[in-house]
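User: Just a sanity check before I run the rest of the batch. Below are the structure tokens for the first item. I only need the designed sequence back.
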């Protein structure tokens, strides 16, 4: 058996995806890799299976409860009964959270039937449908006497944003076996209305929050309606020409400063920037516009290199929820909104499908483990909205019975006045299996590792079945058993994450061979063959580019795909993490199942009246020396678990001795 270390097999652009697009969130018309659906990939155990279970059994109902309670679902009833605008509650974009819940429910129902959930889903859809205007327009916020006119506030109104989420919800329903469902009819009417109003000769505006682009593009794919893709292309091309008002943060806030294909980097509001990039990629790949795809890929590369936290989080401005300039990545001011990470997964996944490069799958993994998984509490009923990398003051436990005004990071809260993140997590978890693997004419590619069953048909028509078994990320061993090999030539390609300094591959109990980061293709495996990929998850220090001034002189620790952090509850006497100095000469190691670093806890003593001192002096009463202080082992926790044990101070980047 030979192995070929390589990037994924170099297949030419392939044109149409295999027949049927069941359960796939994204189905591009062209690209290197074909996505798989929820019917083809099932995560059956482990880290992500647990989160999917909690999502199904707790989070969906939790979100539904809060949408009722906060009035965001009843807004649709008021619309039907003539009770708007007087009784309306929630922000201008609250309709979108209902649509994201419907999307999450649709994926979940596609994963496994549940009559109770199905009934709740239909009940919500009926309420939304009843509120739709005869011409397809749907919004609880605009268009009635006493409300703003339709599309009179493109900067802030979010009407197209909300309808984009409606379309994504309908895509989930259509792709899980219900193309004629009421939700799909509602979204189709909305999309027709949008094309009518914003078509080539219509309103030349764009929405202040990108989202309609991905919604239209994917609905067009799902319903085989090319007009929707053309409308998405119009919105992509119209952005960047300054049609939206200049605001205090500049037009870059909503990416209306530079045309998409001319931009150099993601900028402005981080969720908006990612959603726009995702939509531009959809338009680019479907219209075979390589220049547009390349423009977004270039922007993604610089954004990854200079504007992304070690967790994969994006956005370092709290005031406008936006990217900072290159290397402005302060850990204690990280905004790193959960939705921005969901958007970054959308972008990286589309780039992976278009180009097949494993670094995009690395980015999906980083954001999933270290931001998306960080947001929800273990019980799936409280969330982080912003994801700081450094908590200086222990957060207050959030009230369980009122929505939190605090989007900025403290302890996880059950709901927020702006609650975009919880349903975004829910729809991502429900559709997670779709991001695990792809196929192409050369075979099957595994991108994310989870115990799973994959049953697919290759573009050639040959069936392939593999079972994946792993304790990932706790353990780096991934065992793939070929349950059914296709006839003819094929290859199983495995991603070798960039975080693994070494990796070995063993085929059918043969000799383990070292494989480099990127991807490794194993050709012509037979039914019954077993491939074992061993990734090195031993913990290691990370050091930042010294232009990230805010963390210069600090180290972080990563173990496998998980970024770790230190919490004050793990320091002697609950001391503040500000007092920890890590000894960088002693590598992090595992002791009794926990990763520890060697360090000292210094005594800062009295705080000086002026926190700066000349020359080599140290302000305050603390001496600069730490040699005399006793070195201890300090346990770390996975960042996604932080604050699970109650309030603490926390930091990812730790100063060194
Ligand atoms: O504007 C809608 C959503 O609310 C954004 O995506 C989030 O950043 C939050 O501001
Ligand atoms: Zn959000």
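Assistant: Here's the designed sequence for the first item:
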């Amino acid at each position: 058996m030979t192995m070929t270390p390589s990037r994924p097999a170099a297949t030419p652009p392939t044109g149409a995806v295999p027949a049927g697009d069941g359960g796939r969130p994204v189905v591009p018309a062209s690209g290197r890799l074909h996505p798989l659906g929820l019917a083809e990939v099932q995560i059956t155990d482990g880290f992500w299976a647990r989160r999917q279970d909690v999502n199904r059994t707790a989070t969906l109902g939790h979100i539904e409860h809060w949408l009722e309670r906060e009035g965001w679902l009843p807004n649709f009833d008021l619309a039907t009964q003539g009770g708007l605008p007087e009784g309306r509650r929630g922000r201008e974009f609250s309709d979108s959270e209902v649509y994201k819940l419907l999307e999450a429910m649709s994926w979940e129902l596609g994963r496994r039937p549940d009559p109770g959930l199905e009934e709740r889903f239909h009940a919500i859809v009926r309420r939304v449908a009843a509120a739709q205007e005869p011409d397809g327009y749907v919004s609880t916020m605009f268009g009635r006497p006493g409300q703003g006119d339709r599309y009179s506030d493109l900067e802030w109104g979010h009407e197209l944003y909300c309808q984009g989420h409606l379309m994504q919800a309908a895509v989930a329903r259509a792709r899980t076996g219900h193309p004629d469902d009421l939700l799909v009819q509602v979204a189709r009417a909305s999309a027709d209305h949008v094309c009518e109003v914003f078509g080539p000769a219509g309103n030349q505006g764009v929405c202040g929050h990108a989202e309609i682009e991905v919604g239209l593009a994917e609905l067009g794919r799902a319903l085989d309606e090319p007009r929707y893709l053309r409308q998405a292309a119009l919105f992509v091309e119209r952005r960047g020409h300054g049609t939206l008002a200049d605001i205090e943060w500049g037009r870059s806030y909503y990416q209306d400063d530079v045309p998409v294909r001319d931009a150099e980097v993601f900028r402005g509001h981080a969720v908006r920037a990612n959603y726009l990039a995702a939509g531009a990629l959809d338009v680019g790949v479907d219209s075979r516009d390589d220049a547009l795809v390349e423009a977004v890929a270039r922007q993604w590369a610089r954004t990854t290199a200079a504007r992304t936290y070690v967790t994969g989080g994006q956005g370092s401005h709290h005031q406008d929820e936006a990217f900072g300039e290159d290397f402005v990545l302060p850990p204690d001011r990280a905004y790193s909104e959960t939705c921005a990470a969901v958007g970054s997964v959308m972008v990286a996944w589309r780039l992976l499908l278009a180009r097949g490069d494993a670094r995009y799958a690395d980015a999906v993994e980083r954001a999933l483990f270290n931001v998306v998984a960080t947001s929800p509490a273990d019980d799936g009923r409280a969330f982080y909205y912003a994801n700081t990398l450094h908590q200086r003051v222990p957060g207050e436990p959030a009230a369980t019975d009122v929505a939190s005004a605090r989007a900025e990071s403290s302890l996880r809260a059950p709901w927020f006045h702006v609650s975009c993140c919880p349903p975004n997590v829910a729809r991502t978890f429900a559709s997670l299996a779709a991001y695990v693997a792809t196929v192409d004419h050369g075979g099957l590619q595994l991108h994310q590792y989870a115990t799973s069953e994959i049953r697919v048909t290759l573009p050639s028509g040959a069936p392939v079945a593999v079972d994946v078994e792993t304790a990932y990320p706790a353990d780096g061993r991934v065992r793939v058993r070929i349950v059914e090999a296709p006839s003819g030539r094929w290859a199983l390609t495995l991603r070798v994450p960039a975080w693994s300094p070494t990796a070995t591959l063993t085929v059918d109990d043969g000799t383990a061979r070292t494989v480099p980061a990127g991807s490794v293709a194993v050709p012509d495996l037979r039914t019954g063959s077993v491939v074992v990929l061993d990734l090195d998850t031993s913990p290691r220090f990370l050091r930042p580019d010294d232009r990230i001034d805010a963390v210069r002189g600090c180290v972080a620790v990563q173990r496998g795909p998980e970024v770790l952090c230190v919490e004050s509850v793990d320091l002697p006497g609950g001391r503040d993490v500000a007092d920890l100095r890590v000894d960088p000469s002693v590598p992090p190691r595992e002791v009794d199942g926990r990763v520890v670093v060697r360090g000292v806890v210094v005594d800062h003593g009295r705080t000086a009246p002026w926190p700066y001192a000349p020359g080599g002096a140290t302000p305050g009463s603390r001496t600069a020396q730490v040699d005399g202080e006793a070195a201890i082992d300090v346990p770390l926790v996975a960042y996604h678990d932080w604050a699970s044990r109650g309030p603490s101070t926390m930091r990812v980047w730790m100063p060194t001795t």
